[in-house]
Specification:
Strand content: under 5%
Number of helices: 18
Number of domains: 1
Structural class: mainly alpha
Radius of gyration: 22 Å
Largest sheet: none
Distance between the termini: 7 Å
Order of helices and strands: HHHHHHHHHHHHHHHHHH
């Protein structure tokens, strides 16, 4: 029985790596198509996008190195270092806030109006600490919750909440709303899997709801518009907001709301993203084909809205394939969690699966107008070094946990 279980886990790990690799390849291919549309010549290629696929391949190589690095040592050894890693990433977040609010630091550049990245040298890729914080948070939280005494009493919840609230405030001040919105559901899932009492889980939900108005008050105006875009897609809601300044002030942070303002602001990306998806139809326009691939009708189509670019090229069937690959990743990750009796390994595996699942749901959902536009990338697919490396570290940790010999007692 033990040999059978060991063989099944090996198959699960191989399937996980295959699905993750195919997602990375799909991302590189889409980024290449955006920079080199079918039938284009050298003069018509967008120079800003043409070399992104090369950079993405380089990021994938760095991600592969990170994947290997997290598999060199046991995941439990990483757990022993988890609070030091957590503190180090928290320190990087502090550097970013220091540069934003106090002293302008040359290695903390302003990109798209925000300071979220650290660039040590112009020839080196910039890193986004909030991306790496996601996995540091999951590992530190899993290491804390591995003991029953750390989640069964109300007093013991101070630790998980401290690990969540302080970084949430720091990341929100960058501002990076997507990461903050991701942390609380992950906290809830990991507490639930750990075995926290129902009343404590309700307290977490209640605290999250109480903090929501505070977060809403401090977020930037453009972030309000992006989140409210889910409601503002309705013409009736837009008319109601235009007639009631108090409602407009809550939704978009200004009294004089107008439909044209929304279409220029938060609705700009959303409207074009939905057009890109619907014009893909069932089978799509083909690789490198379509107006939304050839022309810059949809900004950030290589990053935040890459799901719309995939739908435009490959249609509904292509999106199903992407969802199918993610489903394989989630099922394999949960299988690794179920077949491991170590509380820490199980919690980290579940936390990673929850985080990746939320990112997929939010990213693809915002492209279709079903979720708020928060800036969460599509794991393993979207352009970006920090995002891709973080996702590959997550896959590496799942593989590391799957290599453990602490299988279910029934298999021993």
């Amino acid at each position: 029985m033990f040999k059978f279980l060991e063989g099944r886990i090996l198959f699960t790990r191989l399937l996980l790596l295959l699905a993750a690799s195919l997602l990375v390849i799909a991302g590189v291919a889409t980024i290449y198509a955006i920079g080199h549309p079918a039938g284009s010549d050298g003069d018509s290629v967008d120079s800003d996008l043409a070399n992104n696929w090369v950079k993405q391949v380089q990021f994938a190589v760095l991600g592969l190195a990170a994947f290997i690095a997290v598999n060199v040592v046991s995941y439990r050894r990483i757990g022993e270092w988890s609070f030091f890693i957590f503190a180090a990433v928290l320190g990087l977040l502090g550097v970013i806030l220091f540069a934003r609010y106090f002293v302008d630091l040359p290695f903390v550049p302003v990109i798209n109006g925000t300071r979220r990245w650290i660039r040590i040298h112009p020839s080196l890729p910039s890193i986004q600490p909030s991306e790496f914080f996601k996995i540091a948070y999951i590992v530190a939280l899993g290491w804390y919750l591995r003991y029953r005494s750390n989640y069964r009493s109300f007093k013991s919840l101070i630790g998980p909440l401290a690990l969540t609230v302080l970084p949430s405030v720091m990341i929100l001040l960058e501002p990076d709303l997507g990461t903050v919105m991701l942390m609380w559901p992950v906290l809830f899932v990991m507490l639930f899997v750990a075995g926290a009492r129902a009343k404590h889980l309700l307290c977490v939900i209640g605290l999250g709801l109480l903090l929501s108005p505070v977060m809403w008050h401090f977020i930037e105006q453009y972030q309000r518009v992006r989140i409210s875009s889910v409601l503002l897609q309705s013409e009736k809601v837009r008319e109601f907001a235009a007639e009631h300044p108090s409602v407009s002030r809550v939704l978009v942070g200004r009294d004089n709301f107008s439909s044209s303002y929304w279409q220029r602001a938060g609705g700009y990306h959303l409207i074009r993203s939905k057009y890109a998806i619907c014009t893909g139809g069932l089978r799509g326009n083909g690789f490198g084909e379509g107006l939304f691939i050839r022309y810059n009708f949809l900004p950030e189509r290589h990053n935040d809205f890459i799901f719309a670019a995939i739908a435009h090229q490959w249609g509904f069937l292509g999106c199903l394939c992407i969802y199918g690959l993610y489903a394989i990743v989630f099922v394999c990750g949960l299988s690794i969690a179920v077949n491991n009796t170590d509380p820490f390994g199980r919690l980290v595996a579940v936390g990673i699966c929850a985080m990746l699942a939320i990112e997929v749901i939010v990213n693809s959902g915002m492209s279709m107008g079903l979720m708020p536009i928060t800036g969460l990338t599509l794991p393993l697919v979207s352009y970006g070094g920090s995002s891709l490396m973080m996702s590959m570290i997550c896959i590496g940790l799942l593989n590391n946990i799957g290599r453990s010999r602490k299988f279910c007692a029934a298999g021993k």
